[in-house]
Amino acid sequence: MNTTIGILGGGQLGRMLFQQAANYPVNLKFLDKDINGPCGSICRDIVEGDPMNFEDVMAFGRSCDIVSIEIEAVNTEALRKLQEEGIQVIPSPDTIETIRDKGLQKQCYSKHSIPTMPYKLMDSEKPKDLPFEMPFVQKMRQGGYDGKGVQVLRSKDDLKEWFTEPSLVEEAAKIQTEIAVIVGRSPSGQCIALPECEMVFDPTYNLVSHLQMPSSLDRTIQKQAKQLAIQVVEALDSPGIFAVEMFLLEDGRLVVNETAPRTHNSGHATIESLSLSQFELHLRVLLDLSIPNIRINSPAIMVNIIGSGKIGKAKIKGLDDLSTMPDVHLHWYGKLLSKPGRKMGHVTILNPNNAPEMVNTVLNTIQVTGV
Fold first, then answer.
1. How far apart are CA 236 and CA 204, in angstroms?
2. Residue 132 and residue 124: Cα distance in Å, rounded?
3. pLDDT value, residue 193
4. Which CATH superfamily is domain 175-370 in?
5. What class, spelled out in words, does domain 118-171 have in CATH?
6. Using alpha carbons only, how large is the chain's radius of gyration in Å?
């Protein structure tokens, strides 16, 4: 009998997991408030409910053999109860709680001697004495995603925008480049890091504009990044799939920025670029299957398709022109509504001859707006 895997959340990460799971003898189902979202348009087994609601998660989880996540905003109390009833939960509720609170996440790094930027936890009101010289970064401890809940405070005038929610502030990093490493850790303890990617962020929306896999960094730095990512995951002490984001500083040091307890935007190029994608890695972790050595089939760049213009029914332009480009792979997330700054899909280009030129070509070719 096929294993039933339940996923809390039904967004684009779940959609791409479902596409991979079609090749495995599993039943994949989702719990989401929007049954017409990215998963609902391709999966018939999507349950309407709130992943943050105790009763919804309990009812959903009791119909599964394994429960996992594609978002952090889930009811961990219910997940603990499901564990007590013998249902496997990956990653562990404790790990989800540690990661989704950026303050606890930072404290975990400090406890395990993992390099990160100096920080201080803040309650709510802005302090009389600033903890760092300006500029510095303020992050909401919970609820931030895709650049939301993070701000750089550069002058005293910026203090008017101070987050009143519990937050942390950290010293502004002098960044050479930003990288991310996807790590899978199985219940039996096998832990493997995928090749790192090098990310470029959209200055308007503060989310990834595009990335390159593998990075252009020195091989010594590449090896250090993988080792550091595995160190983070071992410190979290849970099976699962994790995205560890790092800064390579101007002085050559690597420091951990933050970690996600799930598949991640930074790993999308793995679908075509590697012999094992982050989504298949997630499945192998959930099923506790052996994880083989993973090779790079083709270097790649990935470009996010980000909504622009007004809010409305999503309309994509430039698909005909995109289809004439060689080694180009479009991933459409099936979101009905486009909003400025919303991730609507991504494009992966294999074996790019001129990465900056290809990125600009894609960005100028594909547009998604609301109508």
1. 32
2. 17
3. 97
4. ATP-grasp fold, B domain (3.30.470.20)
5. alpha beta
6. 20
What pTM value is reported for the model? 0.94
Class of domain 3-90: alpha beta
Return the structure tokens found at 54.
Answer: 């105790």
The predicted pLDDT at position 143 comes to: 82
How far, in Å, CA of 307 to CA of 50, rounded?
A: 25
- Give the whole-angstrom CA distance, residue 137 versus residue 175: 13
Q: What is the H or E stretch that residue 208 is in? A: strand 208-213
Cα dist from 226 to 156, 162, 232, 332, 369, whole Å: 38, 35, 10, 30, 38
pLDDT tens for each residue of 95-125? 999 999 999 999 999 999 999 999 999 987 7
Question: DSSP 3-state assignment of 85?
Answer: coil
Please tell me the predicted confidence (pLDDT) of residue 146. 63
Q: Which residues of the chain have pLDDT under 50?
A: none
Domain ranges of the chain: 3-90, 118-171, 175-370
Q: Which residue has the tokens 């992943």?
A: 51
**Token pair for residue 237?**
């002490």
What is the rounded distance in angstroms from the CA atom of residue 45 to the CA atom of residue 27? Answer: 9
Q: How many residues belong to the chain?
A: 371
DSSP conformation letters of 94-152: HHHHHHHSHHHHHHHHHHTT--B--EEEE-SSPPSS-SSPSSEEEEESSS--TTTTEEE
Residue of 18, 45, 19, 17 lying closest to 31 (CA atoms): 45
